[in-house]
Amino acid sequence: MRWVGALLLVLAPLTSMAQEVVVLRDVRLFDGTGAPSRDHVDIVIRGTVIDRVEPTGTSPLPEAKSVDGRGTFVVPGLISAHSHVGQVDGVSRVPENYNRENVLRQLRQYEVYGVTTIVALGTNQEPFYGIRREAHAGTIPGADLFGADRGIGVRNGAPSAQVLPSAADSVDRPQSVDEARAVVRQAKDRGTDLIKMWVDDSRGTMPKMTCEVYSAVIDEAHRLGLRVSAHLFNLQDARGLVEAGVDIIAHGVRDQPVDRALIDLMKAKSVWYVATLALDDASFVYADRPAWMDEPFFRHSVQPALQKQFDDPAWREKTLAAPGLKNSREALKMNQRNLAILFESGVQIGFGTDSGAMPLRIPGFAEHRELELMVEAGLTPAQALAIATGRTADLLKLPDRGTIAAGVYTSPEIAQIGLTEGEAAALGRRCRVVTQPLAVVDRAVIDGAADGVLKLVLDARSERLLGAMLICDQATALLPALGLLLRTKAKVSTLGAAGLAYPTLAGVFGKITDGLLRERLTRPVRWLLRQRFRWLR
User: Fold this and answer.
1) pTM of the model
2) What is the mean pLDDT of residues 470-476?
3) Using CB atoms within 10 A as the burial measure, which of 13, 27, 140, 502 is most buried?
C-alpha cells in the first residue's frame, strides 16, 4: 500500500477559522479534477477559503503563515458515498453501538485517514440527525456526515438481523406498494439526504424486494426530490433497478460480467456505480495476513478487540476454512472486472466501501484499501483518486468539496482551474489557447463586467479542456461547470450544447464554442452559408 501512504496532506472543506492567511508552499498537488499532478505549487488559504493555487514563489505574502510543504502530496479530502456509522465497536455488533460517543469516534477516525465526507447509507438511528447538523456546522471534529435515514428492506430479508443486529429495529420493511410510499414520505419528513434500499436475496437464502415495491420507492422518492441508492448483487437486479429509475447502484455486480445492455442503459439514464470492492476483500484479506498489517498506518486504525482477533491463530484458521470464502474471493474478482469494464465504457463511477457496517470493514483504512483494489482492477492511481474526490463530489452534488480549485476574491475575481498553458507545455501536451472577451456576453454588459475575459487551454487535437482562467466578477461561480468538463474529459463544445440559462455569465461558454465551430468550417462551406443566409434576407 505504499502509493496510498504517499497521501500526506488532505484538504477538506474548511470551517470556523478566522481570516488568517496560510500558504502551503512547494507542494505536489492533485487537484481532484482529473488533471495530472503538479509539482512546485503554492496553495493560499484565506480564512475558510482556498484563495488561489499558483506556481511556487508567485506571491511572497510576507504577512502569511508559511508552511513548508516540500515532499508533501496534497489531495482533496476523500469522499465515501457508501459507509456506515454506529454499527460496530471493536468486534461487537449491537444496536447500543449507535450512540453519540461511538459515532463521533468513527467520524474522527475517518478524518484522520483523510476521508473528510461520508454518507452513512442506511441503518441510522435517532442520534444521526443531531450529529449531522453539528458536522455540517463544523462544531465537532471529524468527517462531514450525510445519510440515508433508516433504509428500506423486506421482512425476513436483507439486511439480516443476524448479520447486522441493529437492522432489526432501524430498517423500514414495507410489505406493499402503499407502505413503501409511506416510509419514503416519513424519511423525507425526518430530513434524509437520500433513500437507501436493499434488493438482494443473499444468494437465494432469503426473500427479495419485488419490482413493484422498489419501483414505488423510486417513484415516490423522485416525486419528493430525493435520489435512491440500491444495495444489490446480481446483474438481473441491476437491470431491473436501472430500468425503474434508480440513481445510484451502491454495490458492484458480482454474479456475472456486466453486459452491453446494462452499460447502455446506465449511460442513457446517468446512473452512478459504486463498486465497494473492499466489502468482499475484507472477508478474507486479514486472515491472509498481508505484510501491511504490521505497518503503523494499518494498526492505528484497528481497535484493541479487533487486533486481538487478528492475532488469534484459531480465528485465522476458522476464517480461511469458512465455506463462503471461495465465493467472496470470486465475487471480488468479478467486481473488479466489472468496475474496469464500466469505467472504460464511460459509466459514471463513484467511491464507497461499506466501511463501518461490519467490524472487518474498518473506517478510514477501508477507503485506502479500496483505492488499492481499484488500481489492481486496472485503473491508474490518478483515476482512482479522481473518483474518490471530484467525481464522488459530483455524485453527491456537493460543489464545495472534492477539488482544489483557485478563486481569488479581488475586483475583478480571478479564478483558475486545471493546467495553465505553461504547465501543459511542460507536460508535453500539444495545446491551443482560446480567449473570449466578456464584452459579447449580455449579462456581463448589464453587470458592468464587459472588461472580463475567459481563457481556455485546450488539447490541440481533441479540443478537450486542460485548464481555464476567468477574470471577471463572479468568476468562481463559473468554476463548477469547467471542473465538470475537466473531470469527464468532455469536449469544450459540450458546454455550448447544454441549454444555458439566459441572461447569465454562462453565456460566455456558448460564445466560445460558437467561435470554435466557425473555425472548423471550411472556406467553401462558409461561402455557401453566406450565400444561403443572403438569399433568406
Assistant:
1) 0.76
2) 64
3) 27
